[in-house]
Design brief:
Helix content: 25-40%
Mean pLDDT: 96
Order of helices and strands: HHEHEHEHEHEEEEEHHHEEEHHHEH
Bound molecules: pyridoxal-5'-phosphate
InterPro entries: DegT/StrS_aminotransferase, PyrdxlP-dep_Trfase, PyrdxlP-dep_Trfase_major, PyrdxlP-dep_Trfase_small
CATH class of the largest domain: Alpha Beta
CATH topology of the largest domain: Aspartate Aminotransferase, domain 2
Largest sheet: 7 strands, mixed
Family: Belongs to the DegT/DnrJ/EryC1 family.
GO molecular function: pyridoxal phosphate binding; transaminase activity
CATH architecture of the largest domain: 3-Layer(aba) Sandwich
Keywords: Pyridoxal phosphate
Structural class: alpha/beta
Strand content: 5-15%
CATH superfamily of the largest domain: Type I PLP-dependent aspartate aminotransferase-like (Major domain)
Radius of gyration: 21 Å
Protein name: dTDP-4-amino-4,6-dideoxygalactose transaminase
Number of strands: 13
Number of helices: 13
């Protein structure tokens, strides 16, 4: 058995990131500044020239996208129960009502074939999540968008480097929010970015992201800047800083390398676990998985232990794991506010009850990967009915 605990997740940070942050510190420009602008430009290049704003978080990006599209009280936004709280909270924060549609049993993504039934006169937006890094069917999504004149805000927190028919998520003409949180495929510690398909709204969102101050106010302390600013809206403090952007630039430069390693680990898992009575994550024809997560699902009827016990057994073997996600409708706050009850979104609940996210990150060694495979094999085989 392995000697040291293998954490569920670790960011891939090394000397390049250290140097970049030290240089940023020595520049004395530690808030939003030239590095943030450079990061935005490079993200834009990475996403085929889309307009990209670097922000404090993915949550900030989704919030601003809804606000900038005037989505608010009386409006409904359709999203998935199988996501992190942020996707629903931003809908609540603009005063709109979240409407949940159950997920596909294989990908864990919102079931787009059931979205149409949930659309009403009040529906203004769709907020799908590319769960684990597997793209939703973009053609089907955009068909719904166009047919019902909806705004689409993609929660792409897992989907940096995810593609649909070879084309990167973030380039399909929708508001698309990426997360650079510590656990995500590209990290700036905390941070995010929003792709804005409409350049006019980009200015509005940029202003909203920095207190509502007029354009270019961020450089008011530089030689080219001026102390004058005007407030054009009651904005937020949602900007990225140059310390974060310094990290982000290095991470973006090594993204391809990191993604290769994620794919490699996913392949090793698939090979090493293929013969077990478990459900491995799917990859539909149209998707290139970003492998943010490796959501293994147990066939609990075939096992004599529960999912929770399975995770405990992994821990005994010095392997960390997690679960993504506790469905939205099972949390007390949302139940109280919207009357959602257990049983309402059965696919999400079944996925949740069977799901274990295995450790998968670029800095894992082949020995680490081997240890995870052996631990899973050992637990499954010794608890088969
Ligand atoms: C991480 C995550 C978020 C939040 O990202 P932040 O950058 O922390 O705001 C939103 N949605 C999903 C699905 C996530 O996993």
């Amino acid at each position: 058995m392995r000697e040291h605990f293998l954490p569920y997740n670790l960011p891939d940070l090394g000397p390049e990131e250290e140097d970049a942050v030290i240089q940023a510190l020595r520049s004395h420009w530690i808030s939003r500044g030239p590095l943030t602008q450079k990061f935005e430009e490079e993200l834009s290049q990475h996403l085929h020239g889309e307009t990209v704003l670097a922000l404090a978080s993915c949550t900030a990006g989704m919030h601003l996208a809804l606000l900038a599209n005037d989505i608010g009280p009386g409006d409904e936004v359709i999203t998935t129960p199988y996501t992190f709280a942020a996707s629903v909270n931003v809908i609540i924060h603009v005063g709109a009502t979240p409407v949940l549609v159950d997920i596909e049993k294989d990908t864990g993504n919102i079931d787009l074939s059931m979205v149409e039934q949930a659309i009403t006169d009040k529906t203004k937006a769709l907020l799908p999540v590319h769960y684990a890094g597997h793209a939703v069917d973009m053609r089907q999504l955009n068909r719904l968008r166009d047919a019902y004149h909806l705004v689409v805000v993609e929660d792409a927190a897992h989907a940096m480097a995810s593609t649909y028919q070879g084309q990167p998520i973030g380039t399909f003409g929708n508001f698309t929010a990426f997360s650079f949180y510590a656990t995500k495929n590209l990290t700036t510690g905390e941070g995010g970015a929003l792709v804005v398909p409409d350049p006019e709204l980009a200015d509005k969102i940029r202003i909203l992201s920095l207190h509502g101050m007029s354009r270019h106010a961020w450089n008011r302390y530089s030689a080219q800047g001026s102390w004058v600013y005007q407030i054009e809206a009651a904005g937020f403090k949602y900007n990225m800083t140059d310390l974060q952007a310094a990290l982000g630039l290095v991470q973006l430069h090594k993204l391809t390398r990191m993604q290769k390693r994620r794919q490699d680990i996913a392949r090793q898992f698939a090979e090493g676990l293929a013969d077990l009575p478990v459900i491995l994550p799917t990859q539909r024809d149209y998707a290139e998985h970003a492998w943010h997560l490796y959501p293994l699902r147990l066939i609990t009827e075939a096992l004599s232990l529960s999912r929770d016990q399975f995770i405990e057994e992994l821990k005994v073997r010095n392997i960390g794991a997690s679960v993504h996600f506790i469905p939205i409708h099972l949390h007390p706050y949302y139940q109280m506010r919207y009357g959602w009850t257990p049983g309402q979104f059965p696919n999400a609940e079944q996925f949740f009850e069977a799901e274990v996210s295995l450790p998968l990150y670029p800095s894992m060694t082949d020995d680490d990967v081997h240890d995870v495979i052996e631990a899973v094999r050992d637990i499954v085989l010794s608890h088969s009915r």
